[in-house]
Design brief:
By secondary structure, the protein is mostly beta strands. It is built from 1 helix and 30 strands. A hairpin with a 4-residue loop joins strand 12 (169-174) and strand 13. InterPro entries: CalX-like_sf, HmuY.
Length: 466
């Protein structure tokens, strides 16, 4: 009996020890919900705007948010509405299980006059039992353009459950408006230049490649014309010759792989296009395309390689944009925001690297481009010269700004075999097309720095208002 009691006592002690150990495991931090930014502008040229909220992590069960509206000089139902609709100036949102975001839309009424002083304040009033309201609990929407004082943004690079190193979205950021525009990388195939020249770009963010043929009749191009044609990048052993199938990684509009579109129709050749499989994009059928000029811009002829008949799309030049985009599956499609409404693009894309014998094309994750065609300039600043916190308006005079598309590029982070990490010895200063100057850096991008690959966190602060 004594032996049994001793045995039971030992079991009880063991159970207590294991239970204590389990109780000592650190609990998960609060799952906060808050607005993506504290302020945003709703310019006169826009009729609809999406307001986004972010969570610290996915919710395990569906949760409900209530958002209170406080309009100033505008009336709900007369001047604006929301989706979902508000009831008694309260919007109710449901966040489905497995999601880490929420959003609602605001739509202006047709033909209304606004002075620009109007605004709406949105406040998270309740967040259910599994969420905690974060610091940015209020959001002020102004019915005019703004110049942000700066903020932190978590970029929405992930389109679904893909790996962060192959994030499905490109993300365009407008610093002065605290806004981001995620766009699926695979959602477009061709960009038609809206400037003075007649140029067409292919999709470097999907690793698209082309072969320019000698033929100028789309109906005369068949599968036989693809024999011996290799339209792929060898990521393991790339060669300089692969540059000949790509647009220049520099973004130089005079160095597109598709030749400038000639006013002489017969000079415009047929092109074979592999739409690209970069960043885990599934292989898609090759197309044959031909681009001509018309009175307002371009005429695109296109078909699959195996098809004899072809389709036609007219693409007008819209000078409000750098490019007007087309998907060969869905037709005209929005990609870049208007050229004065974005400053940087975070994306996966073809870039360059060297394995010791000169530059070769290579697919990179986490690349950052500036809107060089839209007039944005940038400078890299080493903290050995001046720290991010200390950088002020007085430093601008000695800062050299450049229009190089990839000045930020991949230089802000390291993905060496020893582990991915942020480079904390540098930051960037961005001058937008209006002349506003911001200092800019990354806060996180990888689990090694407490972040999430594909959802990098950026911070920027206004140094000088134009």
């Amino acid at each position: 009996m004594k032996k049994i009691s001793t045995f039971l006592l030992m079991l009880m002690i063991s159970a207590c020890i294991f239970t204590a150990c389990k109780d000592d495991d650190p609990p998960l931090p609060d799952n906060t919900v808050q607005f993506e930014a504290s302020e945003q502008g709703f310019g006169s040229d826009k009729n609809e705007l999406e307001v986004k909220l972010k969570l610290a992590r996915n919710v395990e069960t569906a949760s409900t948010l209530t958002i209170e509206l406080q309009p100033s000089d505008v009336v709900y139902g007369t001047d604006f509405t929301t989706i979902p609709a508000a009831a008694s100036n309260v919007i109710t949102l449901t966040i489905p299980a497995g999601s880490s975001t929420a959003s609602f839309k605001i739509t202006k009424a047709q033909n209304i006059f606004l002075s620009g002083d109007e605004s709406i304040k949105f406040t998270v009033k309740s967040a259910g039992s599994v969420l905690v309201i974060g610091k940015t609990a209020s959001f002020n929407l102004k019915f005019s353009s703004i110049v942000s004082e700066g903020t932190k943004l978590t970029l929405s690079g992930l389109a679904g459950n893909e790996a962060g190193s192959s994030a499905g979205n490109s993300v365009f950021v407008d610093l002065s408006n605290n806004s981001q525009s995620p766009v699926l990388r695979k959602s477009w195939d061709l960009g038609f230049y809206a400037g003075d020249d007649f140029r067409v770009i292919i999709n470097n963010t999907s690793s698209a490649l082309v072969k320019v043929l000698a033929k100028n009749d789309l109906t005369k191009v068949t599968e036989a014309d693809t024999i011996g044609v290799n339209l792929s990048l060898n990521q393991m052993a790339p060669s300089p010759e692969e540059f000949l199938m790509l647009d220049s990684y520099t973004g130089d509009i005079t160095k597109t792989v598709i030749p400038a579109v000639s006013a002489t129709e017969a000079e415009n050749k047929v092109i074979i296009l592999n739409r690209g499989t970069g960043g885990a994009i599934a292989a898609r059928p090759w197309y044959k395309i031909r681009v001509l000029r018309n009175a307002n811009g371009y005429t695109l002829q296109y078909a699959r390689i195996t098809e004899t008949a072809f389709k036609t799309i007219n693409v007008s030049k819209d000078a409000l944009y750098n490019f007007n985009f087309v998907s060969l599956e869905t037709g005209a499609t929005p990609v870049e925001p208007k050229k004065n409404e974005w400053d940087i693009q975070w994306t996966y894309s073809v870039f360059k690297t060297s394995f010791g014998a000169g530059d070769v094309p290579y697919n990179f994750s986490d690349l950052v481009a500036i809107n060089h065609l839209g007039g944005v300039k940038v400078a890299e600043v080493l903290t050995s010269a001046v720290t991010y916190d200390a950088y002020a308006e007085s430093n601008i005079a000695t800062t050299t700004f450049v229009s190089d598309k990839w000045t930020i590029g991949s230089g802000w982070r390291s993905t060496s075999p020893s582990g991915a990490s942020l480079k904390t010895d540098r930051f960037y200063v961005i001058k937008d097309a209006s002349g506003n100057v911001y200092k800019f850096k990354f806060i996180s991008f990888h689990p090694n720095d407490g972040g999430t690959r594909g959802k990098p966190v950026i911070e920027y602060k206004l140094v000088k208002k134009a």
